[in-house]
Amino acid sequence: MLLSSYTMSERTSDNRLALIEAALTSIAEIGLIRTSVTEIIDRAGLSRGMIHLHFGGKDALIIAAAEHANAQYYQILERDMAAAPDGAAARIAAMIHSDLSAETLNPRSVAIWYELRGAARTNATFAAYSDTRDIRLRRVMEAAFSGVSPADTPQSLAQEAAIATISMVEGMWTDYMLHPENFDRAFAARIVFRMLSSLFPEAFDLNGARGL
Amino acid sequence: MLLSSYTMSERTSDNRLALIEAALTSIAEIGLIRTSVTEIIDRAGLSRGMIHLHFGGKDALIIAAAEHANAQYYQILERDMAAAPDGAAARIAAMIHSDLSAETLNPRSVAIWYELRGAARTNATFAAYSDTRDIRLRRVMEAAFSGVSPADTPQSLAQEAAIATISMVEGMWTDYMLHPENFDRAFAARIVFRMLSSLFPEAFDLNGARGL
DNA sequence: TCCCCGAATGGACGATTGTCCATTTTTGCC
DNA sequence: GGCAAAAATGGACAATCGTCCATTCGGGGA
User: Would you say residue B204 has pLDDT above 90?
Assistant: First the structure.
């Protein structure tokens, strides 16, 4: 056996992962509609029965792939937030920079995200994943904006700023998805921070959080 | 004949339109993936061969449906812009209100728009339609923002404001698509105008363009 | 070395897809 | 009312879909 240092179960989980990666690549390249069982097993270089063996069926594989892609997104976001300096404004800036970084905002990841979320509208299981991702992001963002609002401003301003920021970044993802070749990350970030520095001049400037 | 007052070509175009509407309804309700020929002709109450007869094939029907949906969007937008008072700020406000109005931002239209634009990533014909829509909107918006920028501000601010506004509204559409029941149009509009009034205090307030 | 059992294979299967066309129905005109 | 042409029908067709299982493969324990 070529991979003699592997145990059996490691090899098994290799094939599981290979199927997930092949499914995600297919979704990214040719879309969810054209991602058939034949397409996936050809890309993975495995045999037809593997999907049924490891996942029970095609749908379960796609769901596992969605779960995998979601976990990767969170891993990057949480790592970047953990690395951010103390302070609410710095945390917000870290989230924005993370969401616009090449590690998260790249053709493959964005394509997968839009394909799966598109399916979420008519598939309850997918909907649960994208909802979790959205709600979690919104909650963290609202909490952070409460920390940058001056004490005398109404609480609603923090909520509005959180939604404004999430919506704007969301819209920029869409722009990136449609025209990745014309997208300028620094320009996109500057637009977001121009809005934020206009709303909260003491917390943000055009580069992100003030005083970093 | 039941519809004796119709000419032949009018009845023919009725069936064409019925197929387009049935396709769009199917796309909105069950998604593009599950929209099959059988599904469309069942909804239209017509026979199997009609799609081939009127459009030459399923793909051509879907493209015609995309064209139809796009034309409806523009018709509403241009009507609302034509009804806007003079002035750049008023035109921008009219565009935002139009894009957030129930006539444009409703479950059916939004579902169709997202389904078709999702397919645009892997289908050049669809891509052309969504690009046209996006580019046209951006151009009009940039021109309008040039009109509200104070003379001493750099030209780039107008461009940034246009992108910021389009991105934010785009993000709100996404929010609406995912959670139409929790969406508050007035709240969404207020967030957009809060950002704009912060960037251009003399042109906008929380309700839209100033002095209307 | 042989055996065993889980891993992996790939073909068979019925269901469903989109296309196409022979046939029937309806229309406008004489 | 009859006739040619257009419109509409719905079943046949090959291709492809996802599922499943009889079979083969391969490595660790006896």
Answer: yes
**Verdict on whether the full-model pTM lies above 0.85:** yes
User: Which residues does residue A204 pair with via DSSP β-bridges, in sequence order?
Assistant: A209
| Token pair in block for residue B189 | 């509009």
Task: For residue B124, give the chain A residue with the closest CA.
Answer: A178
Flag if A130 and B199 touch (Cβ within 8 Å). Answer: no
Residue B45 identity: G
Quickly list DSSP for B37-105. Answer: HHHHHHHHT--TTHHHHHHSSHHHHHHHHHHHHHHHHHHHHHHHHHTSPSSHHHHHHHHHHHHHSTTTS
Coil, strand or helix: which one is B73?
Answer: helix
Q: What is the pLDDT of residues B16-29, one digit of tens each?
A: 999 999 999 999 99
Question: A130, B178: Cβ pair inside 8 Å?
Answer: yes
Q: Of the candidates B114, B191, B199, which has its C-beta nearest A163's C-beta?
A: B191
CA to C1' distance (Å), from B61 to C30: 37
